[in-house]
Structures are given as C-alpha cells and as structure tokens.
Amino acid sequence: MENDSPRVLVTGSSGFIGRRMLERMRRSGTDATGWTRADGDLRDPDVVRTRLARIRPDHIFHLASEPPKPVAETWTRVADEQAMLANLAYAMPSHCRLIYAGSMAEYGRAGLLRETDQCVPDTGYGCAKSSGTNLALALRTILQVDIRVGRLFGVYGPGEGPSRLLPTLFARLRSGEPMPLSDGEQVRDFIHVDDVCTVLFALADAPGPPPIVNVGTGRGVSVRHVCETVADVLNADPSLLRFGARPRRHVDQDALVAGTKLLQSVVAPPPQRWLDKTLAAEVIDSMCGNLPSV
User: Fold this and answer.
1) Number of helices followed by number of strands (H, E) in the chain
2) How far apart are CA 222 and CA 54, in angstroms?
3) Pick from 231, 254, 104: which is nearest to 172 by CA?
4) Where would a tag sit more exposed on the chain, N or C end, judged by fewer CB atoms within 10 A?
5) Nearest to 190 by CA among 163, 223, 167
6) Where are the domains of the chain?
7) Which pLDDT band, with edges at 50, 70 and 90, does 3 fall under?
8) Is 156 left (phi over 0), alpha (psi -120 to 50) or beta?
C-alpha cells in the first residue's frame, strides 16, 4: 500500500484471506483493524454505524462471508450478504473506499471469464456473491460512494483450512495414505493468498479503477497438474493420487480462468506459481511448514 498509510478496516479478519491481509498490513506499519464475529454482527446496522464512527476508516476490505456449504443453501445467505454490505456502505465515511470480495462462483459457467460476461451462478454461494456485486454497483449510484469489487478466483496458500484440497493432499501424501480425487482435469486459475492481498491493496490505492476487477493470474492449470507437482516435490509415491476415485460435483466446471485485461489497468497480474516448479516448491514448503509433523 502507499507510504502515507490509510486507516484500514478488514472484515472477516479471522478467516483465511482476512487474517493474512491483516498480518501483512500490521507488519508494514499500516493502521489496520480487524472485524470478527466477536466484534459485532455486521448484519446489525446500529452495530456497524457505531463501530465505523469510532474507527473512521479510509479503506474497508470487506471479506466477511459465509463459506460455501456442502448442504442445501437457503435464501438467508443472500439476505445476509446484502445486509452486511449495505450496512457498511451506509455507515462508511464519505471519503472511504470499500473493496468488496466477490468470487469466480458468480459466473456459473466455464471458460475464460471476463467482468462484462453475464453471470448465471449455479450455487447458493455464487448467488450470494453475485447479489453482493449487483448491490455494490447499485450503491455506487444511489449513495455516490466508492465501492470496488474484486472477484477472487482459486485462492490458496498458508493458513487454508485443513479440509481444503491442498492441506488434505499434503497430510495424506506425507503419511503415505491414498488421496481419493476426481479425474483432476478441471482447470483452475489458482492464485496465492499473498498475491490476492497485493492485488486488493492495488485496487484500493488505484485512483479510478473499473468497478469490477477479476483477481486471478489469467493462466489456468489443471487440478491433476497441481497434485502431481505436490507429489513430485514431496517425493511421494504418485500412485497415492487416486484420480477418478471420486465423482465430480455437478457444479464443478471444466475451466475457470480469469480474464485479466481490466486487472492490467490496475496492477500487473501475478504469476501462476504452479507453472514454475521453483515457485511451486516454495509454496509447498511454506504450506507444509504450517502442518503438524507426521
């Protein structure tokens, strides 16, 4: 972020991305405050108004959201997503910039995805995020506030939950256990959490960026390639990778890759680390260092 550091608020600061972002800003000396559920309910307008009046942030990174669920969703997810965003928008100082974390799940289809493409989300999470993005655009006009949307693609890195793909893969391969997988042919735009933070910081600092910007590398890589790279770097038996042992979910798109033309107007897209074995090895080493010994 810029040297004349702004006062920053990060919602969802106990989550994977929010925690990493808050740590980075505090290390750099930025006046950054986190917001977790213990700090109050973002769906309560009085709570939000009171706390923002005290903090007076220059930038808000709104990362708070319910994670995707494996069970049936309800309409309350959409209502909660909109309530949190609206409360922040109505309560934030007039000079403040709000960066809302959208998702690739908004698109609901496969391909090289551009911000101008029509969104047809096919999950409850995608519907909630798409509704948040649409509300952000509406609030920009209605309230004349500065809200910017960063649509996050396949974020990974140190601090991921243990049930996610990479931490589970590391743990199983290091202990010599088989790893049941789908066919692994899905192509994803995986982006490291530190690169996400860098892009979101640039999006906040930019003088006049597009209202919606994809946050990805612009380069896709298959799940199979990632898993095989991990096995190679860890010197694990590749036969432990049981491709095809699990079916794909019906919403598991063949390819989700970020179009980065608009991102390039803000900051250079980060590298696809899984296509560079040295970078991939560094990622694996940093993530395995956070796991229990086997």
Assistant:
1) 9, 14
2) 46
3) 231
4) C
5) 223
6) 7-155+191-215, 157-188+219-288
7) very low
8) beta
Closest CA to 252 of 193, 189, 182: 182
Conformational region of residue 151, where left means phi above 0, alpha means psi within -120 to 50, and beta covers everything else: beta
* CATH fold of the domain at 157-188+219-288: UDP-galactose 4-epimerase; domain 1 (3.90.25)
For position 72, what pLDDT does the model report?
Answer: 63
**Which residues have a Cβ under 8 Å from the Cβ of 245 and sit 6 or more positions away?**
178, 180, 181
pLDDT band at 277 (very low <50, low <70, confident <90, very high): very high
Cα–Cα nearest to 196, from 243, 142, 157 = 157
Q: How many whole angstroms separate alpha carbon 22 and alpha carbon 28?
A: 10
Instruction: List, for residues 80-129, the tens digit of each pLDDT value.
Output: 999 999 999 999 999 999 999 999 999 999 999 999 999 999 999 999 99
Nearest to 151 by CA among 99, 98, 205, 212: 212
CATH no. of 7-155+191-215: 3.40.50.720
Return the HEC string of 97-159.
EEEEEEEHHHCCCCEEECCCCCCCCCCHHHHHHHHHHHHHHHHHHHHCCEEEEEEECEEECCC
Q: What are the backbone angles phi and psi of residue 31, rounded to the nearest 5°?
A: -75, 90
Residue type, 237: D
Contact predicate 85/135, CB 8 Å:
yes
Higher local confidence (pLDDT), 164 or 291: 164
3-state secondary structure of 211: coil
Provide the angle, in degrees to the nearest 10, between the axes of the packed helices 16-27 and 193-205.
Answer: 70
Q: Tell me the helix, strand and coil percentages in the chain, rounded to 5.
A: 40, 20, 40
> Residue 286 above 60 pLDDT?
yes
